[in-house]
Design brief:
The chain has about 900 residues and is α+β, with helices and mostly antiparallel strands. The chain contains 37 helices and 19 strands.
Length: about 900
């Protein structure tokens, strides 16, 4: 993805300069700045000031003028009782001058009492003169002549009449008398929920019961294409039998349908005006975006917060303060008295970004029902997705990051010289110096470097070079210019990390590749529990300094900073350090570290994703020590846990895509891997595994594009370069594969996977003597592992040395009785020797465990003879392979 445009302009008035930006956060800062400046001026000067400052930006002018109008009429935005269908003695006051009196008639209905007035409507209790049924009648209020008020009343009736649910007030009839419309509805004899909440704290069971009923009402409404837009506790009545009834669909709106030119019902509250109650409005509504079902989810979150605490999550002394809190501040702390599971549900409902919330009221209802049934923990996916990863401190800190992004471009042009005149497309972050004074803590510096690279790749449109490649080049290159040339980097980032007394500090600097001159430097320090936030601070500052655009997803990523225990993070980094060595022994150690991290904090998504990677590797033919039948389900479970906690985790999507690939769920695998690439285009393993999927499906051109992209990101990685050679080999480009794999072994001659693939390519090219030499070294390097012996046996068969191959086959069969030897290795050797009867039971076992080799039958899997055997084809069919 290429970097988004970074066009900015500035407006000035009275010596003040405010940067414009395309992001919504920066847009809000612009609106806020102009609004505050306008408030400081006399009333007579405000309009002219706004017109001058917002010249050329009518949308900005409208937003500021709307805020000014709201501030001058603050009372109109405050929470007021809805035009509820309540008994006449429940509101505690009677508005003067109701339009109708007891005994008046509206069609077949006789007014018996005035109930309440709210907004532009009046509610009366009435009786059907023929049926004797007691009803509520809603009319336009006394003195209201606005045509839009009439339309709004009728729209409420039309919308609500589409709904038939036990928790939604029923509409009986729409009528008109003397030119005044009215609607007749169910009379709800009960108490408003806000009054109940104000009296005393609710028991958990009662709060959940009311909330589930309200959520169920929203599920029904959304299913019929209706969003409420003004859900709040004063619009919910609790009957004497405990049933909750949702009222007042006066602001309800149809969701857009295919063919709707205006996207559904028009807002009848006036062009540019906000519909609803300010304290319950979702951030996107305040930013001028249309409401959808997730806006109702936000309002449901506000109601849940009120049920749990008796208060509102966002409050201010003025409408401006309230809207600022909704847009930029976390909900007020709920306290330890609210159960964790319920707090997590509320936090997710109140995520600033709609995509981070529950996507439907049905999801909220299911989560609440699980809590009520005291089986919340199995629903960690629904309950913990916003868990401590979106801590109060992390969300609030977003406001501090945005100004950095706004002003960074200006400082860059002053400091970066020639770099500032062109777009930055490639960034190389060199391994951070371990300045702790403890050489054993190198894993921490390396891990933080990897994390910064991952975040920079996920948040920006730049190509970010992997640490492994940067490390290899930095060891041998003598100058910064040489490092930049080998990595094809536009800018170089260097840094140092220090830890002491529970604090973590990072010094970072931006270096001119041509001269080695330091162009910019920064130093940040935080509590060790805030190391993730510290990393995001650094990434945000770097993104501003090197003028690389933030990706659209960056806004969500900025909100995902959370606190993490130092013990948890250290265990995770130790696990990553071991995992990167990619040996059976190091994988075992990595699993132990990751399991420790999960044990300490089950909600830390990266540790779950890392465990998934380990289990995936444990079940492979080259590295693995066990059957994929055992380890791949574990990998799937850990990847799913990670995604339930953090749906934006690219590593977890990639790991799950890996699982789905070898489980032959081709479409699901491709979707997961493409999602991983979309979330972090600079994550090379997502591209490798996607290339492998494409190769297994015979889509070689696409596979090569992906694996080349991975090499661009990690040009000196052993595993990446080995995969390039493997794909070239399967594409029939044997000479190119041999050259590629030979270069890979020049980086590290002990890397067994590259030597394995080189032997394959040499066999494909008919160079059997060279293949035998590589096979011999492979057996020695791997300490005569079962798979390496099977690979050497295949080479022996191709070279005509069948008796030696049969001797290896007997050795492998004997070893398989005491240790795990991949059945595909033994079956493949039987097949190479022409013994299909001997191969069939082993390959049947390989199919049963979904061995990796079976997945690549289009490429380097079982040979043509076995693929023509009807017995084996029947095995594949029964297993669901297609």
């Amino acid at each position: 993805m290429s970097p988004p445009g970074d066009s900015r302009s500035s407006g000035s008035a009275g010596g003040h300069h405010v940067a414009l930006s395309s992001t919504e956060e920066e847009r809000w800062l612009r609106v806020k700045a102009v609004f505050v400046e306008a408030l400081e001026r006399p009333d007579a000067e405000r309009r002219g000031f706004v017109a001058q400052t917002c010249a050329g930006d009518s949308a900005l002018r409208d937003e500021v003028e709307s805020l000014l109008a709201s501030d001058s009429a603050a009372a109109s935005f405050c929470e007021t009782p809805a035009a509820a269908l309540l008994g006449p003695d429940l509101l505690g006051q009677q508005p003067a001058g109701p339009r109708l009196a007891p005994g008046d008639r509206l069609g077949a209905y006789e007014i018996t009492a005035f109930v309440a007035a709210g907004g532009m409507g009046e509610v009366y209790r009435a009786r059907h003169t023929v049926l004797g049924r007691q009803v509520a009648v809603k009319t336009i209020g006394l003195g209201v002549t606005d045509v839009s008020a009439r339309r709004r009343l009728l729209r409420e009736a039309q919308n609500a009449s589409m709904l038939a649910h036990q928790n939604i007030c029923t509409i009986y009839e729409v009528g008109e008398t003397d030119g005044a419309p009215f609607i007749v509805m169910e009379y709800v004899d009960g108490r408003p929920l806000n009054a109940i909440v104000r009296e005393a704290a609710l028991a958990l069971g009662d709060a959940l019961g009311y909330a589930i009923q309200v959520a169920d009402a929203l599920v029904h409404a959304h299913h019929h294409g209706i969003i409420h837009r003004d859900l709040k506790s004063s619009n919910v009545v609790i009957r004497g039998d405990g049933r909750a009834i949702v009222l007042d669909f006066g602001l309800a709106k149809r969701l857009p349908e295919s063919g709707d030119r205006d996207g559904g019902d028009s807002t009848l509250t006036g062009q540019g005006a906000l519909a609803g109650t300010l304290s319950h409005m979702a951030p996107e509504i305040l930013l001028g975006r249309p409401a959808d079902a997730r806006s109702d989810v936000w309002a449901l979150g506000v109601l849940l917060y009120e049920l749990a605490t008796g208060e509102l999550p966002f409050r201010g002394h003025t409408p401006f303060e309230t809207s600022s809190a909704i847009l930029g501040e976390p909900p007020r702390p709920m306290g330890g008295g609210v159960p964790l599971a319920l707090r997590l549900v509320i936090e997710r409902c109140l995520m600033k970004t709609p995509a981070a919330r529950y996507q439907s009221a049905a999801e909220v209802r299911a989560a609440l029902d699980a809590i009520r049934r005291r089986h919340a923990w199995p629903l960690v996916g629904r309950l913990l997705v916003s868990a401590r990863r979106k801590t109060l401190r992390g969300i609030a800190a977003t406001a501090l990051v945005v100004p950095i992004l706004v002003v960074g471009a200006g400082r860059l042009r002053q400091r970066l010289g020639t770099i500032g005149t062109r777009a930055v497309s490639t960034v190389a972050v060199l391994p951070f110096e371990n300045a702790t004074g403890d050489s054993a803590a190198q894993y921490y510096a390396d891990g933080v470097t990897d994390a910064l690279i991952g975040q920079l790749g996920a948040m920006t449109g730049a190509r970010v070079i992997s640490r492994s490649s940067a490390t290899r080049v930095a060891r041998t290159a003598k100058t910064t210019a040489e490092i930049a040339r080998q990595l094809r980097a536009d800018v170089i980032v260097e840094g140092a990390l220090r830890r002491s007394s529970g604090r973590v500090a990072i010094d970072v600097k931006l270096v001119d590749p041509s001269s080695g001159r330091v162009l910019w430097s920064d130093a940040r320090e935080r509590d060790a529990r805030e190391v993730l936030a510290l990393q995001t601070d650094i990434v945000s500052a770097l993104a501003a300094e090197v003028r690389i655009g933030l990706r659209p997803e960056a806004r969500d990523l900025l909100l995902q900073r959370r606190a993490v225990s130092p013990e948890v993070y250290e265990a995770y980094l130790k696990g990553r350090y071991a995992f990167n060595q990619r040996t059976p022994q190091s994988l075992k150690l990595a699993i132990a570290h990751f399991m420790r991290a999960v044990e300490l904090d089950p909600t830390y998504a990266p540790a779950h994703a890392a465990l998934a990677d380990c289990y995936n590797q444990y079940g492979t033919q080259m590295v693995g020590v066990g059957s994929p039948r055992e380890y791949r389900p574990r990998a799937a479970a850990e990847a799913i846990k990670a995604l339930q906690i953090d749906p934006s985790a690219a590593e977890a999507h990639a790991a799950l895509g890996y699982v789905r690939h070898y489980d032959w769920q081709w479409a699901e695998a491709e979707a997961e891997l493409k999602r991983a690439i979309a979330l972090n285009p600079s994550y090379p393993f997502a591209r490798i595994w996607y290339a492998n999927l494409l190769m297994s499906r015979g889509r070689m051109d696409e596979a090569l594009r992906q694996v080349y992209a991975a090499r661009d990101l990690d040009p000196f990685s052993l595993i990446v370069n080995t995969n390039v050679g493997w794909v070239l080999n399967n594409a029939g480009r044997f000479d190119d594969a041999i050259a590629q794999l030979t270069r890979t072994l020049e980086l590290d001659s002990s890397y067994t996977q590259a030597r394995w693939r080189l032997a394959d390519a040499l066999m494909g090219a008919g160079r059997y003597d060279d293949a035998l030499a590589q096979g011999n070294r492979l057996v020695r390097l791997s300490n005569r592992s079962g798979p390496s012996l099977a690979q050497f046996g295949l080479i022996l068969v191709r070279a005509g040395r069948t008796e030696e191959a049969r001797a290896l086959l007997r050795e492998l069969a004997a070893r398989s009785r005491d240790e795990y030897v991949p059945p595909s290795s033994i079956g493949g050797l039987y097949e190479a020797l022409g013994d299909l009867d001997g191969a069939l039971p082993w390959m049947t076992a390989a199919v049963a465990e979904h061995a990796n080799a079976i997945t690549y039958m289009r490429g380097d899997g079982p040979g043509p003879a076995l693929m023509r055997d009807p017995r084996f084809l029947a095995v594949l069919a029964r297993a669901g392979y297609r």
